[in-house]
Amino acid sequence: MSRGAKTRHPVRNAIVLLFFLAGMALLAARAVYLQALNTDFLQSQGNARHSRLVKDNSHRGMILDRNGSPLAVSTPVDSVWAHPPTLAEERRKWPRLTALLGMSTHELAQLLSKHDGREFMYLKRHVPPALAERVMALKVPGVALQREYRRYYPLGPVAGHVIGFTNVDDQGQEGMELAFDSWLRAVPGAKRLLRDLQGNAVEVAESVVLPKPGKDLVLSIDRRIQYLAYRELKAAVIEHHALAGSAIVLDARTGEVLALVNEPDFNPNNRAGLRSGTFRNRAVTDLFEPGSTLKPFTVACALESGKFFAGTVIDTTPGSLQIGDRTIRDVHNYGVLTVAGVIEKSSNVGASKIALALNKTSLWEMLRHVGFGQTTGARLPGEVPGLLNPSSRWVPVEQASISFGYGISVTPLQLARAYLVLANDGEALPLTLLHTDSPAQGERVMSVTTARRLQSMLELAVSDAGTGKAAQVADYRVAGKTGTVRKLTASGYSEEKYISWFAGFAPASSPRLVMVVAVDEPTRGGYYGGEIAAPVFGRVLTGALRLLDVPPDAPRQSPRLMTVKSEQVAE
Predict the structure, then answer these.
(1) CATH number, domain at 508?
(2) 143 neighbors 127 (Cβ within 8 angstroms)
């Protein structure tokens, strides 16, 4: 080997060593850049591959009755979801998965196409626990369970129209669920899930945002009275082959709604196949002419005017009254009646003669003050204000017709509020579906004297000689009024379709409960309010007064006085 060859080796070694050191320096610099200067990028890439942020749900607030019994609760349930990119690569496992979920592979392919580029999609919401276990046993990459909550209603159809229901996303759709949705609704949080190499969620890494449960809502409803009203109204609608019906029970002292029911009903736990019209809360959405149940307010205006007293004589002979080309008739020729007798016998002629002697603006104001022509404030979705035309548009025949409940349209809940005024000694209370220990301040709309005179007159209407005899409650004095109304059709007032009403309160000596019953189009067993609606009132209040432990004011061993006080007759 020559000397020149020996001298070239150290140079070559030095060059190799230089390149090696330069490479090491580059690797060290890259490591410092990636691990010290660009950590956010690496962390985000790692998270994208091995962790995922998902919604962390909480439960909706409970709805309770006034005694703390549950009316709506949320139960935990699982929903099946998937990571679309991961599931799209597992076509061989699609058939078994879709068979369990009740869908076809074609439907799954369409769903994946719709969610292309997204990180989350639902496969099936609110599945039974057994099905959730079978789905997870398949170990399909990218498929996992999400904890959600489903609403359950212990009373089912008994309180469906009051409580309403939620949709699959736990949002209120009807009733109190809708009216107080923002109060009841939970605020979801977020949690980070770790995934394995197959894309399956293996554990919760951390809670990013804690969920907030919804707040509970305590209603004024008494589930015991709600059931009583539901049972008796349903039985009446079935017995009389009626189209529909509504019933409301109020606390006369506070304006709280203790019960509100409608027929036909619906079960909020099982809404499959039901039409949206079934959800309609007829007690606040449907308008009817109130018929003779309006007569007490005509008489109230008369008493307040000072022109009439309970004993003022009204001649209803010959049982009819001609106003222009319209003839107003009574069922019988009652002859000479007192004002109290007009209520007891429910004379249309007598009510018309009283109304025509009054200032029409004063009559309109009385009807307005007791709540007709305006919503009740109960905050039930869909409530309508009714129809009460301005008095400036009234002609004599309309003024007469309104006196006995034609030419004005009300909801059953509006009529209940009006009778609450009579039961509460002339003070109008706002209605509420929320339980309250301190009722809102009322507004006086008629004098105490007038209200108490009407209470006595309405007792006569429920006496053995009155039209509302079937509303009597053993051991209690009852005050109330029947109503029978021909329904208005496109061709005029029907001779075959009727609304049967009863409105009243008990005990009459110190009213505790107010109730209104409306039965729409009874077709069997009669159609008069005293035949159809009054018995429902009597049966419900018989149970409700005892449930509330209200002391009897007319025990059977004592004679029951069913007459107007002597000083009122003398007037």
Answers:
(1) 3.40.710.10
(2) no
297 is written with which tokens? 């307010």
Whether 252 is covered by a domain: the verdict is yes
CA distances from 388 to 288, 366, 393, 407, 481 (A): 12, 12, 10, 8, 21
Give the whole-angstrom CA distance, residue 537 versus residue 498. Answer: 18
Based on the structure, what is the number of domains in the chain? Answer: 2
Judged against a pLDDT cut of 90, whether residue 37 lies above it is answered with: no
Amino acid code (one letter) for 571? E
Report the share of the chain in percent with pLDDT over 70.
Answer: 88
Place of tokens 């005050």: 479
The answer to whether residue 277 sits within a structural domain is: yes
Residues 251 and 171 grouped into a single domain = no
Alpha carbon distance 158, 234 (integer Å): 10
Task: Return the exposure string of 41-69: e unless at least 16 CB atoms fall within 10 Å of the residue's CB, then b.
Answer: eeeeeeeeeeebebebbbbbbbbbbbeee
Set 292, 352, 409, 456: catalytic member: 292
| Domain span including residue 431 | 223-570
Cα–Cα distance measured from residue 231 to residue 225, given in angstroms and rounded to the nearest whole number? 10
Q: Does the structure show a pLDDT above 50 at 561? A: no
- Tell me whether residue 33 is in a domain: no
Asked if residue 213 and residue 255 are part of one domain, the reply reads no
- In a domain? residue 204: no
Q: Are 151 and 170 in contact (CB under 8 A)?
A: yes
CATH for 93: 3.90.1310.10
Res. 387: pLDDT tops 90: yes
- State the alpha helices, DSSP H only, in 67-104: 84-88, 94-101
Q: How far apart are CA 322 and CA 437, in angstroms?
A: 52
- Rg, the chain, Cα only: 36
| Token pair belonging to 549 | 């432990």
- Please give the torsion angle defined by the CA atoms of residues 534, 535, 541 and 543, in that order, rounded to the nearest 10 degrees: -170
Q: What is the pLDDT of residues 68-112, one digit of tens each?
A: 999 999 999 999 999 898 899 889 999 999 999 999 999 999 999
pTM for the model stands at 0.85
Three-state SS annotation for 528-563: CHHHHCHHHHHHHHHHHHHHCCCCCCCCCCCCCCCC
Closest CA to 188 of 206, 213, 207, 208: 213
Q: Do residue 330 and residue 427 come from a single domain?
A: yes
Number of H helices, E strands in the chain: 21, 19
CA triple 152-157-159, angle to 5 deg: 80
Residues 246, 335 share a domain: yes
List the structure tokens of 423: 């039961």
Q: Region 157-175: what's the mean pLDDT?
A: 94
- Binning pLDDT at 50, 70 and 90, where does residue 241 land? very high
Give the whole-angstrom CA distance, residue 419 versus residue 530.
Answer: 17
Domain identity same for 228 and 156: no
Same structural domain, 427 and 409: yes
Our answer to whether residue 292 is catalytic in this structure is yes
- Verify that 327 and 273 share a domain, yes or no: yes
- Same structural domain, 459 and 438: yes
pLDDT tens digits, residue range 329-357? 999 999 999 999 999 999 999 999 999 99
